[in-house]
Design brief:
Oligomer: heterodimer
Number of helices of chain B: 0
Largest interface: A-B, 20 and 21 residues
Structural class of chain B: mainly beta
Shape of chain A: globular
Order of helices and strands of chain A: EEEEEEEEEEE
Distance between the termini of chain B: 37 Å
Strand content of chain A: over 45%
Strand content of chain B: over 45%
Radius of gyration of chain A: 13 Å
Number of strands of chain A: 11
Chain lengths: 119, 105
């Protein structure tokens, strides 16, 4: 059974940093692209960042470029999102997702972790 | 960037009814489209990928169709457990539609 379990969320002041983790199990982690998708309270879904299976390439939405860093440790089957210079508009539930084998869509999602940016 | 316009934003339907949700892309996305269901307080779940392929374990009353810029999700014989929000998503820059909130009449 595919499982994605996020951790590391919480309340943080604007301008500070936070690092999310996602522990994956039930599949060969190193074979799949992974991504983070977020959802602000009562809002829609927004893709944040993606990483190739090897970690050699990464992709970001414009609003987080230069502030967020996606990375992975295939030996630990863990995905990360380092979030620096956080803003109030980053407040959201962050979901760890696995990109489907045929790529482009997200076939499994974690339960989500809440990040609140507020003074 | 490719934009996705989803309609309607909300929908009320009766048990057993057939429901259709639409998504329009700002340019041709060549069937690179997925549909997700999100029940209240839960994470999204994949329903359909590649515009018309049913994800593992998804009931056959869900179906996807379309091509070019126009796509749709159809739910046959609506069940109470289908009350949820539904989102489309295109593959090229991973953009989601605005969502459709489906309620029971």
């Amino acid at each position: 059974e595919v499982q994605l379990v996020e951790s590391g969320g919480g309340l943080v002041q604007p301008g500070r940093s936070l690092k999310l983790s996602c522990a994956a199990s039930g599949f060969t982690f190193s074979n799949y692209y992974m991504a983070w998708v977020r959802q602000a309270p009562t809002k829609g879904l927004e893709w944040v960042a993606s990483i190739t299976n090897s970690g050699g390439s990464t992709y970001y939405r414009d609003s987080v470029k230069g502030r967020f860093t996606i990375s992975r440790d295939n030996a630990k089957s863990t995905l990360y999102l380092q979030m620096d210079s956080l803003r109030s508009e980053d407040t959201a539930t962050y979901y760890c997702t696995r990109e489907g084998w045929e790529r482009g869509y997200f076939d499994y999602w974690g339960q989500g972790v809440m990040v609140t940016v507020s003074s | 960037d490719i934009q996705m316009t989803q309609s309607p934003a909300s929908l009320s339907a009766s048990l057993g009814e057939t429901v259709t949700i639409e998504c329009r892309a700002s340019e041709d996305i060549y069937n690179g489209l997925a549909w997700y269901q999100q029940k209240p307080g839960k994470s999204p779940q994949l329903l359909i990928y590649n515009a018309n392929s049913l994800h593992t374990g998804v009931p056959s009353r869900f179906s996807g169709s379309g091509s070019g810029t126009q796509y749709s999700l159809k739910i046959n014989s609506l069940q109470s457990e289908d009350v949820a929000s539904y989102f489309c998503q295109q593959y090229y820059n991973w953009t989601f539609g605005g969502g459709t909130k489906l309620e029971l009449k």
